[in-house]
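Quick one, probably user error.
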């Protein structure tokens, strides 16, 4: 019977085939279509200078001929194979033979240092705990020590309850009127900027809160360009942060006074936006995160409130005004789904109050009227709870990131591209910034 030439056929149909360790038997060299005479039989023996006997794989018509085999580093190792290194490296070969001239060589390459791995296509899988999940805890401890900064600006004409809403949001007396200003102070003739900072702590987490008020906005007969002081203040905070960044010797932690959020209070007229409202949001929407809210929403019925909200959203869209959260900042489908629900609910119709009343045996924040108490945190009465959860509990960190990565970077790029770049920082300014 003619003997098969395929090594795999040999192993399958000749169960009597045996494996022979190459350390004991040196096979003749195999080289396809030799162009030189075959070497003597003793050529394949290992020598002290070359401990690796040359090897080859028979091809063609089953003939075996001499030839040099590639070094161990050149022997291909299939993907998904088992490999293990032992010291300087050696090659172990197993020969399956049946009848003369039919040889199958199985090679396993052992290279590198002592050790082993099992790979299967995509990479190695090792057993044991590394501790990558502790990174979150490390970050938490780090930020707990340094604390957080959050700067919020409130804009709207007098009497819309800006200070009261701030006190309601943070459950503290954080507004400028609560910080020592007289109740009977006169309305300024021009827009003034007044910032009040507080350190709030809850559950061991400290946050430096700065409330920036804008008294005098929209209270004059002629309100032309009344947004300019506000825009100037926002850009000044960007400039202050930028100068700290470009100093040769910078502070380890640059104080962040940039405005992270601007709550714009819309009067509850029930009709449409004023021209002042449109102009302000159009001019500042590209430099700060604007969140429109309908103030004193308890003056509107449920139907009037819904119609007014739809009318405001339509006017903002027609005017090309983008309020936070902007659609282009949605990072993935989950963010888009969550933010779409928020955008459909905006502008939030809110009611603020820092007074407590007894309702059904519970102490609640609310506004007392002749027919009952308007509960501030009751979603059936107003949307204050939605605003609080959105502003503090879900998007506070994102507000800071959008301020830094979008609005501040836009100002920074524009500032550095201007002719002359940054103004030279004097030595006195440098010494003051390092204090």
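Nope, works fine. Designed sequence:
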């Amino acid at each position: 019977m003619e003997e098969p030439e395929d090594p795999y056929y040999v192993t399958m149909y000749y169960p009597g085939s045996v494996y022979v360790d190459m350390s004991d038997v040196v096979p003749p060299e195999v080289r396809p279509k030799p162009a030189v005479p075959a070497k003597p039989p003793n050529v394949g023996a290992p020598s002290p200078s070359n401990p690796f006997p040359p090897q080859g794989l028979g091809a063609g018509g089953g003939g075996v001929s001499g030839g040099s085999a590639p070094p161990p580093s050149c022997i291909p190792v299939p993907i998904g194979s088992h490999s293990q290194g032992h010291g300087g490296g050696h090659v172990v070969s197993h020969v399956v033979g049946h009848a003369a001239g039919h040889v199958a060589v199985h090679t396993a390459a052992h290279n590198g240092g002592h050790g082993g791995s099992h790979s299967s296509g995509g990479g190695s899988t090792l057993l044991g705990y590394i501790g990558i999940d502790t990174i979150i805890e490390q970050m938490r401890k780090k930020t707990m020590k340094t604390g957080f900064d959050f700067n919020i600006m409130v804009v709207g004409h007098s009497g819309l309850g800006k200070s009261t809403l701030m006190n309601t949001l943070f459950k503290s007396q954080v507004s400028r009127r609560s910080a020592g200003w007289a109740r009977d102070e006169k309305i300024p003739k021009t827009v003034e900027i007044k910032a009040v900072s507080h350190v709030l702590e809850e559950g061991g987490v400290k946050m430096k809160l700065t409330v920036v008020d804008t008294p005098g906005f929209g209270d004059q007969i002629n309100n032309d360009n009344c947004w300019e002081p506000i825009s100037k203040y926002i850009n000044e905070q960007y400039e202050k942060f930028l100068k700290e960044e470009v100093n040769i010797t910078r502070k380890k932690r640059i104080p962040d006074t940039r405005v992270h959020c601007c709550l714009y209070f819309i009067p509850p007229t029930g009709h449409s936006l004023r021209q002042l409202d449109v102009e302000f949001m159009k001019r500042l929407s590209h430099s700060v995160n604007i969140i429109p809210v309908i103030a004193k929403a308890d003056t509107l019925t449920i139907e009037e409130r819904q119609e007014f909200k739809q009318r405001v959203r339509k006017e903002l869209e027609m005017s090309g005004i983008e309020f936070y959260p902007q659609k282009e900042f949605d990072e993935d489908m989950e963010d888009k789904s969550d933010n779409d629900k928020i955008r459909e609910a905006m502008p939030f119709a809110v009611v603020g109050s820092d007074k407590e009343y007894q309702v059904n045996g519970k102490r609640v924040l609310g506004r007392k009227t002749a027919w009952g108490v308007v509960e501030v945190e009751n979603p059936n009465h107003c949307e204050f709870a939605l605003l609080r959860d959105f502003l503090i509990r879900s998007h506070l960190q994102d507000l800071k990131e959008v301020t830094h990565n979008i609005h501040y970077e836009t100002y920074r790029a524009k500032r550095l591209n201007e002719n002359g770049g940054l103004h030279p920082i004097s030595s006195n300014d440098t010494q003051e910034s390092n204090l």
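The radius of gyration is 39 Å.
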